[in-house]
Structures are given as C-alpha cells and as structure tokens.
Amino acid sequence: MEFMDSLLYSSLFDDSSDDDTNHVERKKKIFKIRINNLDLWDDQEFIERYRVSKKVALLLTRQIEDEIKFDTEKNLAVKPIDQVLATHQYYGSGSFMRYVGDMSGLHKSTVCRIIHRVTRSIAQLRPSYMNTPPNNDERMAVATDFYKISRFPKVLGAIDCTHIQILSPGGENAEDFRNRKGTFSINVQVVGDANLCIRNIVARWPGSAHDSHIFNRSNLKCRLESSEFDNFWLLGDSGYALRPYLLTLLNDPQTQARKYYNESHIRTRNAKERLFGLWKRRFPIIGTKLRSKLDNVQYIIVATAEN
After folding, report:
1. 245-301 pLDDT per residue, tens
2. Are residues 140 and 262 in the same domain?
3. Residue 88 domain-assigned?
4. ∠ CA(141), CA(143), CA(149), 5° rounding?
5. HSE value, Cβ hemisphere, 13 Å, CA-based, for 285
6. Using CA atoms, how far apart are residues 164 and 181, in angstroms rounded to an integer?
7. Which family does the entry's similarity section mention (predicted)?
8. Same domain, residue pair 93 and 227
9. Which terminal Cβ of the chain has fewer Cβ within 10 Å, N or C?
10. Please, is 49 exposed, middle or buried when counting C-beta atoms within 10 Å of its C-beta (0-12, 13-18, 19+)?
C-alpha cells in the first residue's frame, strides 16, 4: 500500500511527463491584410465612411504626424494616415473597436492604442480650429451671419449645454455623473455660430452639474466680464442669468416689442439646436453611449467638436 501511494504521489508531481496534453502551443501570429482606404473610395464614399474629406484627413495627418508615428523600422508599422482613418472610422461608426480593427486590418488592442494616441493629438489642436473671433472685423462677420437669421444684432454666439452619455465611471464620485434623467453623462458647454461651427467648448463637468454652474466657472465668463468682447453678446436660454453680455428670453412679454424680441431671440438661438443635432449625427460615437474610460471621453468629445 505504501508503494502504491508513492507511485501515485510521484505521478501527480512529476514535471518530466511526456504527455502531449500538458503542452500548450503559442497562438500563431496572424497578419491581417491592410487596405489602402484613401485610394479605394471616391470622395463621397470616403466622407460617408470617415465623416471627413480626403483633404481634411491628409491635413490632420500632416499636423499630428510627429506625435503619432511609430519609431520603429518594422515594415508592418501602422502609417499615420491609416491611424487617422481608423480613428475617424471609430468616430463615424459609433461601433466597437473590434469592428474597426476588422475593417482596417488591425488587432483590437492596436486599434485601442491608436485611437487614444490620435484623439489626444487632435484635441491638442483646439486653439487652431476652435476659437472666439479675435478682432472686431471677425466679430462683425459672425454677428452679420446671425443677423441674417432673424435680425438680432451683435450676436457673438449661442451658448448651451448638451449631455454626452458615458458608462458609469465607478468609484466614490460615480453618482456625480448621473444627470436628471438618471443616466451617466458629461455635461458639455458649447458656444456655436450661425454656420453651425463650435467656437468654444468645455467638456470636463459631470452630468449633475447645472448649465449656469459650468458657465460661472468657465474661462469664457472671465473674458466676457473683462470687456474683451465689448458691445457683443451671447444668447442663452432660461438656464442662464441675464447679464449685459448674455441675453436671455423675457418672462411674460406683454408689449409687441417684447414679443418680437423673444421671437427673434428664439429663431437666432435655434442655430445651437441644429448644431447639436448635426454634431451627433455626424459622429455617432457621441450620439450614443461612449464606452471609453473617463480620461479618454473628454478628448474624444473635443476631437470630434474640432472636425
């Protein structure tokens, strides 16, 4: 009996067994075929898939190429233009990274790293693509475009907030991101012009933050109060307080002049609603629920706003 026990013990702990079932083969590396999407599609088909024109894609690539190119001599390193296209496919499809990888000939983990690198590089270009008019001539041009809508003078922009849904960030402060509708979101403040371009954006406040709270703690308010945009103003809804540089609707207008003011105010500010709709339809990734980490969500919002 002792002899049999010793044999059983040795068979359980003997590492020199030749049994093939204990041998685990390393998964063979597969190199997917990469397609030259820049030349494959015509201009219209390219825009439908990537939400930007070929000219814009090439311009973005030149501007961020030094930040995103891989410092390697390997032949299969992903080119900067392919990184930009994969990122915009993610923005434009609102899909999972695995799907983007299958369409780009890349592994899911590679797509994940590329999207984060490219998104952060694009977001850093914000001062070049998103700014309030720096001088009176440009401000008058913006105001003229607004005036053509409903004859409201000297409007520099329409301000409002929109919620971008996210996954629960977890942690002790997760409930701060739950908005009044019970979902988790980032409350994003946007100032847009009459041509549906975003001039200013704040994308760092949780969904529970009120619109006026975000504005009161923004750099934009400090610039307005310092008279940097003297004789021009923003248009906002009733969520904001009436100020010399921020005009809101009049409550219970009795005279015809006040009614005309409200009507002109509503029509002019409607450009902001169309901007939000266009932005979220163009980039479904922000029109649905963003399934990225909180640190990356803010960069994605800013990067899509610049496009």
Report:
1. 999 999 989 999 999 999 999 999 999 999 999 999 999 999 989 988 888 999 999
2. yes
3. yes
4. 115
5. 28
6. 12
7. Belongs to the HARBI1 family.
8. no
9. N
10. middle
Q: Is residue 79 part of a domain?
A: yes
Give the predicted TM-score (pTM) of the model.
0.86
Domain final residue, candidates 124, 153, 182:
124
Q: Could you tell me the sign of the dihedral formed by the alpha carbons of 296, 189, 271, 158, in that order?
A: negative
Judge if 69 and 167 occupy the same domain. Answer: no
Report the C-alpha gap between 59 and 88 in whole angstroms: 14
Residues β-bridged to residue 186: 164, 206
| Residue 99 CA: distances (Å) to CA of 31, 96, 164, 246 | 16, 6, 22, 45
Among residues 304, 297, 277, the alpha carbon closest in space to that of 177 is found at: 297
Task: Provide the domain limits for residue 170.
Answer: 130-291
Amino acid sitting at position 7: L
Residue 50 tokens, joined: 């990537």
Same domain, yes or no: 86 and 140: no
* Helix 108-123 with 97-104: angle, nearest 10 deg: 100
